[in-house]
Amino acid sequence: MGGMVDVGEVAARDVEVLAAHLGEFMKPYLEVVGWSSREKQLSAFVAGLLGGTERKSVEPMALAQGVDCRQLQHFVGVSPWNHLPLVGQLQREVADEMGDPEGVLVVDGSATPKKGTESVGVARQWCGRLGKVESCQLGIYLAYAGKGSCALVDERLYLPRAWAKDSVRRAKAKIPDTVTFQKPWVLADEMLRQVGPRLRHKWIVGDSEYGRSSLFRDRLAERAERYMMEVPSNISVRKVAGKAGRRPEWHRVSYFVKRRPIGEWRSFTVRDGQKGPIEVIATAYRVQTRRRGKPGVETLLAIEALGSDERWFFISNTPLHTPLEEMVGAASRRHLIEEAFENAKGEVGLDHHEVRAWRGWHHHMTASLMALWFLVREHRKLGKKIAALGGDGALHDLRAATSTALASRDRGTMPLPAPAQRGGAHRSLARPRADATALAGLA
User: Domain segments of the chain: what residues?
Assistant: First the structure.
């Protein structure tokens, strides 16, 4: 993603327009949510997610936005408004502003730790944030990257098998009868089938949770989608068998790559970071991959960070004559959804939901995606001036400026926000993470 340029002063009017921009941003969403009371609650909730409260809980947001707390809780948690038209509006806006023939769709999951047994979908399952199996909810998300920006554009809630079979908990959480148990990659494929045609893209990328499934990869191939999916090191591959003679042996992908001569590797710089460019070496082979029936033939891409023992493996249906640089570039863009998660959780409370029912979870996610898209869009509009807010903290400080603008709108004043310190905890949407251990597009 491109770096910032022309660092200058941020004028007070630039902060002032943020509140006006939010009002304009919300208009098409208010038209589809229906009813004036819902319009007021939706505006308050999105503004609250963009506000200055550290924890995006309903009570402090309602107080800050001047709306009734119980009404806002009802609107978010149980009110019967359909979130899908709002998600569709967001997707149309992303397509209009960021649509790119070189665009990339990225699928990934993100877990939120949750205690108890009543929150919809909660179960003991892998929680990436904690790095262990823990009680959590798992959301499956789709991001779109194009024209130097990245936005989350769709979501699904993973419903574990035990939940799908539990009629009592289903009733309490008001889970629709049409919702059944589906594996994460099936949910990802559902989003791609629905959203893919709306957003121009060249690649679909995802992490090993999705890449490990040959069924998922085959479904993408059947739709003529070009994918670059990370796979775990223990999947089996073998050389493409010749017309005659002994069939090659199957090997773990890590062992297969380890035996390749060093002369087959090429070096690349994948992206800039806080410590400078990240240097990697990469190589690609045409291999056979296991299926329940006849083995498939795909392209194996291996990438290693220089100065590190870490390697990452990707399987693709792109022809082997595809430039290696293009394959490495596609693989390295997997990190973009990780950065979108970081921004969504750090700036607009994606994981701060306090709802237990199916409907409430989707309401919160939709509003969070809208709030993040507002920040991404403003970042694109004001990129040069937002750079003055502190480089690595640009998106954070754009949200802070929006919070200042919203608060000042009610006070009748519009003070200039203090510049942020460089090197803070928040990182710019336009400046990816840097160290090799967080080679986020590959990790």
Answer: 12-83+355-437, 84-338
CA 311 from centre of chain: 23
Tell me how far apart the alpha carbons of residues 119 and 194 are, in angstroms, rounded to a whole number.
Answer: 27
pLDDT tens digit string along 197-209? 999 999 999 999 9
Mean pLDDT of the chain, nearest integer: 84
CA distances from 361 to 17, 75, 119, 120 (A): 31, 12, 9, 8
Rounded (5°) CA angle 392-397-403: 165
Rounded distance, CA 188 to CA 182, Å?
10
Q: What is the CATH number of domain 84-338?
A: 3.90.350.10
pTM (predicted TM-score) = 0.85
Taking the C-alpha atoms of residue 15 and residue 119, their distance in angstroms, rounded to an integer, is 38
Report strand pairing: 296-305 vs 279-289. antiparallel
Contact indicator for 200, 100 with CB cutoff of 8 Å: yes
pLDDT band at 390 (very low <50, low <70, confident <90, very high): very low
Cα gap 213→323, rounded to integer Å: 25
Helix axes 36-49, 69-77, angle to 10 degrees: 90
| CA distances in angstroms from 84 to 32, 67, 87, 154, listed in the order given | 10, 24, 5, 9
Cα distance between residue 170 and residue 183, in whole Å: 18
Least Cα distance to 109 among 230, 203, 7 occurs for 230
Confirm if 150 and 2 have CB atoms less than 8 A apart. no
Residue position matching structure tokens 């978010």? 76
Print burial letters for 94-129: b (CB count within 10 Å at least 16), e (below 16).
bbebbbbeebbbbbbbbbbebeeeebbbbbebebbe
**H or E element at residue 97:** helix 84-98
Q: Does residue 254 contact residue 313 with C-beta atoms inside 8 Å?
A: yes
By the 8 A CB rule, do 152 and 372 touch? yes
Between strands 203-206 and 227-231, the pairing is: parallel
Report the DSSP beta bridge partners of residue 269.
279
- The better pLDDT of the pair 107, 385 is held by 107
Query: What kind and span of H or E run contains 25?
Result: helix 12-33
The alpha carbon of residue 419 and the mean position of all alpha carbons in its chain are separated, in whole angstroms, by 28
| CB-CB neighbours of 267 under 10 Å | 10
Dist CA 123 CA 161 (whole Å): 10
- Do residues 151 and 339 lie in contact, with contact meaning Cβ atoms separated by under 8 Å? no
Q: Single out the residue of 343, 269, 359, 357 nearest to residue 305, CA to CA.
A: 269
